[in-house]
Amino acid sequence: MFRQLEEEAAVLRLGAIADDFTGATDLATSLRERGFRVAVALDPDAVPRAGEADGLDAVIVALKTRTAPVREAVDRSLAAIQKLSELQPEQYFVKYCSTFDSTRTGNIGPILDAVLDEVGATRTVVVPSFPDNGRTVRQGRLFVEGELLSDSPMRHHPLTPMTESRVADILAPQTPRSISEIPLGIVRQGPEQVRSALEESASAYAVVDAVTDDDLATIQTATADWRVLSGSAGLAFGMQGDHDPAAQPFEAPDGRRLVLCGSASAKTRAQIANALAAGAQGFKLDIDRALADPDGLLTDTLSWLAGLADGSLPVIYSVATLDDIRATDARSTADPAAAVERVLSRIAHEAVHRLGFRRIVVAGGETSGAVATALGCRRLLIGPQLAPGVCWALAETEDVSARSAAGAAARAHPPTVALALKSGNFGADDLFTTAWKVLS
């Protein structure tokens, strides 16, 4: 699938790192829709070599750094940047969530500091806006569906509760470097005015207002020759590749469908409810049991899954309402989210390698990373868009747990799967029931 393409070698246009797996596919989707040929590496060591990358315009490394300890997050990011540097990209991109998910100690600021130092740059823009998904920045403040970030559901996020709305105020405790703001009035005057404002600033980081896709295109045009960009996938909207996305091949494997939900976001909960109301088969994981008896829960879930008709649409989830999280938090000191991720990733492994599932939607950035790792995926070839920031991708798998002769044969001919790795907050309410249409 990732064979060397017989074309003239070219400098890679963009080398990017993303703070989670869905963030990587989010950026990859934006780029593919704009004519880029894109691959996502699920580990720094999976970055294609120069010969393998000849047919690509962009390579994105999917990391799990959003909630990792700061030192670990920085080290992973630098390892990815160093691998990408071997492809000599014209530009680097540090992609983070459009709700700027982080804590007072990191990880966005420390990663940006380290990347700038690594590639010899002194500044970048900070542009979390993604209007297509309701994220905008005005007067330096981040809004989610018209609400200030601090008033949005992100205020109650279990891992990165966002209680501030001014982006500079969120970033300032994470970095010793200076931060400035470029207001919307300057952006609306065009790329030259934005560039002039940036040139006049001595700050390492410039938070730039943007409330429309045109604003994002203006910012990108103004910084087209900058060594490093940072932001959400929206900042890629001003980039333009040379390849019609409709003409890029994507052949999804035949096989059973499955939806796995580790996200507790309001959007994912709405998508679960919509799918169940439309006739999907639901299995709600008991969070306490995921903590206390994961093996038994796995056995029962797989038994249920194996008993469904081939044409059914199973949706496996753990959170229907926030009361599910609150109840577990009150009874346990362990990490319920991590326990659920482990169970869901094991379900994915068995579903693919034992039960013949080949088309899987995964909701939640951390869950997506756990599932892709459990499946032995190393790279994703990006396919058609399902919603802003959500796409199908092809991935070769490996049954890393197999040790028998049959397992060796499975590793010699690993199944290819179609994966849609979805940020918890992205997609229409009916995504779980409509995602399959582009594969038929």
Note down, in words, how this protein is organized.
By secondary structure, the chain is of the alpha/beta class. Helix content is 34%, strand content 20%. It has 15 helices and 18 strands. A twelve-stranded mixed sheet has the order 11-4-1-3-2-16-17-18-15-12-14-13, with helices on both faces. Strands 5-10-9 form a three-stranded parallel sheet. Helix 2 (70-85) runs parallel beside helix 3 (108-119) and helix 6 packs across helix 7. The radius of gyration is 21 Å and the shape is globular. Residues 1-10 and 403-407 have low confidence and may be disordered.
Please outline the helices and strands.
Elements: E1 14-18, H1 21-33, E2 38-41, E3 58-62, H2 70-85, E4 91-95, H3 108-119, E5 124-126, E6 135-138, E7 141-144, E8 147-148, H4 167-171, E9 179-182, H5 184-187, H6 191-200, E10 205-208, H7 213-222, E11 228-231, E12 256-261, H8 266-277, E13 281-284, H9 287-292, H10 294-306, E14 314-317, H11 322-331, H12 336-353, E15 357-363, H13 365-374, E16 379-387, E17 390-396, H14 405-412, E18 416-422, H15 431-434
